[in-house]
Design goal:
Strand order of the largest sheet: 1-2-9-6-3
CATH architecture: Orthogonal Bundle
CATH superfamily: Cytochrome P450
Shape: globular
Helix content: 40-55%
Structural class: alpha+beta
Distance between the termini: 51 Å
CATH class: Mainly Alpha
Order of helices and strands: EEHEHEEHHHHHHHHHEEEEHH
Strand content: 5-15%
Largest sheet: 5 strands, mixed
Radius of gyration: 20 Å
Bound molecules: protoporphyrin IX containing FE
Number of domains: 1
Length: about 300
């Protein structure tokens, strides 16, 4: 845990140890309530993230507080709906052909984003049809909250481009913000995971011997980091924090360390991803479909 505190300017604590992240996420003083407060850098980080990750006056589920009962029940409902589809998608159905074809193809940098968005979007709307425009909107949405190019994000906000991107995505999933998160943000984690899978698949020996389940497990990529904010003064593992200190949980790095795999979806925690069973099943399905088909 590393705290950077300059009074009036910044108070941010970086955490990249897997057990420390698990402990912090269990601590009720560390939350996603997200009050916009000084120091100025904390204010700026949160202002930008909340601006991007809200639509129509409502926050995306990934930036809602742990104590929200409507968040928790929506999380459980979506989790149950996705779990119910896991067994079928694990078999590698026709709808995964676009992804399987991409995995089989030798073009290293062929784009796969639209095909991923299509598969995720169909979870939320039976008529969902991903386009270059909707994928461009998704790229803007995932870049805007964290890009070092702050001025570009400000421009996207002021010019209305970001608002239009969110309106487009929301309109494609009947205004469901879990859906906007899925097709706009989470889809990028799937793209990254498929990139990892392609490295495995391109080795003929690995392709022949690795089970689909193990291929999916080895491919999973977590988001780079998650934000939390302290709701009171305190201390954790010898590191003091103040009310409103910001925590950056670097799960991308920590999930790769021994014992860190559960961080990919923040399993067994109040903030656990509702896609934690469907996503690995879908990746398994892609591997199975690609590996079992006749090679052209
Ligand atoms: C490789 C793919 C994915 C990864 C690695 C991933 C990872 C995560 C993680 C780490 C969280 C916890 C955020 C936090 O603790 O603040 C989360 C939350 C969430 N994820 Fe995923 N996710 C993926 C795909 C998906 C998909 C496809 C969907 C929707 C279909 C989805 C929907 C959600 C939602 C709604 C939440 C918020 C849960 C809540 O706190 O109420 N995710 N995801």
């Amino acid at each position: 845990m590393k705290r950077t505190r300059i009074p009036g300017f910044t108070d941010v604590i970086q955490v990249d140890d897997s057990q420390e992240i698990i402990d912090l996420n269990r601590d009720v003083r560390i939350d996603r309530r997200f009050d916009l407060r000084w120091p100025i850098l904390n204010w700026l980080i949160l202002k930008r993230a909340l601006n991007v990750l809200s639509f129509g006056g409502h926050r995306f589920p990934t930036v809602i507080a742990r104590g929200s009962t409507s968040r928790a029940s929506a999380q459980a409902k979506l989790g149950a709906a996705l779990d119910a589809q896991a067994a079928a998608v694990r078999q590698g159905p026709e709808e995964l052909e676009g992804l399987a074809a991409w995995l089989r193809s030798s073009a290293a940098d062929a784009p796969v984003g639209i095909a991923v968005q299509q598969v995720v979007g169909r979870l939320f709307s039976p008529t969902f049809t991903a386009t270059q425009e909707s994928w461009d909107a998704a790229k803007m949405l995932v870049t805007a909250p964290r890009s070092p190019n702050v001025l570009r994000t400000v421009w996207w906000i002021l010019s209305g481009k970001l608002g239009r991107a969110k309106r487009l995505l929301a309109g494609m999933v009947n205004g469901d913000l879990a859906g906007v998160n899925g097709i706009g943000i989470a889809a990028h984690n799937i793209v990254n995971s498929l990139g990892q899978m392609k490295v495995l698949y391109s080795d003929p020996a690995v392709r022949r011997t690795l089970s689909a389940e193990e291929a999916a497990r080895r491919s999973l990529m977590a988001p780079v980091s998650l934000l939390r904010q302290a709701s009171s003064d305190g201390e954790i593992r010898g590191c003091p924090f103040s009310k409103n200190s910001l925590f950056v949980l670097a799960i991308g790095k920590a999930s790769k360390s021994p014992g860190g795999q559960s961080l990919v979806f923040m399993d067994d925690s109040w903030s656990g991803c509702p896609g934690s069973r469907w996503v690995p099943a879908m990746l398994e399905g892609v591997w199975k479909r690609a590996a079992s088909s006749v090679q052209p």
